[in-house]
Design brief:
It contains five helices and nine strands, in the order βαβββαββββαααβ. It has 164 residues and is an alpha+beta fold. It has one domain. Strands 3-4-1-5-6-7-8 form a seven-stranded antiparallel beta sheet, sandwiched between helices. A two-stranded antiparallel sheet has the order 2-9. A hairpin with a 7-residue loop joins strand 5 and strand 6. Helix 1 runs antiparallel to helix 2. The radius of gyration is 17 Å and the shape is globular. The C terminus is likely disordered.
Length: 164
């Protein structure tokens, strides 16, 4: 296990709970049972947060395993390690999935090509440049997830690993 990160399920229909735990267990090779709580920002849904350990690239595999459920809001991160950039994936029902590379200080990395594209699309319109940079940083996903994040208890991991 040379990678670690966090999965935050911001809101999920109750019926998805066992499927999310199965997907996480399948990807990471260890049985996970999450501690679920009601999500006040979306009545009838629940939330969970879990630190994980696994092989490099596990965040991408977790995001891929979870992205098919359109009613699911989640974030999954993989920390920077061993010369690798970190990763952050966010999904919302209305926006789909977003990916960004993360540096060792937790900053989102925007590539030179993406910046050049933003400048080409925006031209000399400073408002358009701001919109394109916000798009490159995933601002719309952060904005949509923020009301769900405020419900996160400080220091709560919600993780329980089950050994079979």
């Amino acid at each position: 296990m040379d990678a670690r990160g966090v999965l935050i399920v911001h809101s999920a229909p109750l019926v998805l709970r066992p499927h999310i735990e199965w997907a996480m267990s399948h990807v990471l090779g260890v049985a996970y049972r999450l501690t679920w709580q009601d999500q006040p920002a979306a009545p009838g849904t629940c939330r969970a947060e879990c630190a994980w350990d696994g092989p490099a690239g596990s965040a991408a595999r977790l995001a891929s395993a979870l992205r098919g459920w359109s009613d699911l809001r989640f974030e999954v991160t993989e920390e920077v390690a061993h010369g690798r950039d970190g990763a952050r994936y966010m999904q919302t029902p209305s926006l789909g999935i977003f990916y960004s590379m993360i540096d060792s200080a937790g900053n989102a990395l925007v590539t030179e090509d993406r910046i050049r594209y933003a400048l080409d699309v925006a031209g000399s319109d400073s408002d358009a440049i701001h919109r394109e940079i916000a798009r490159a940083l995933g601002q719309a996903w952060d904005d949509e997830l923020e009301p769900f994040r405020s419900m996160t208890p400080a220091g709560h991991t919600g993780m329980r690993i089950v050994t079979a």
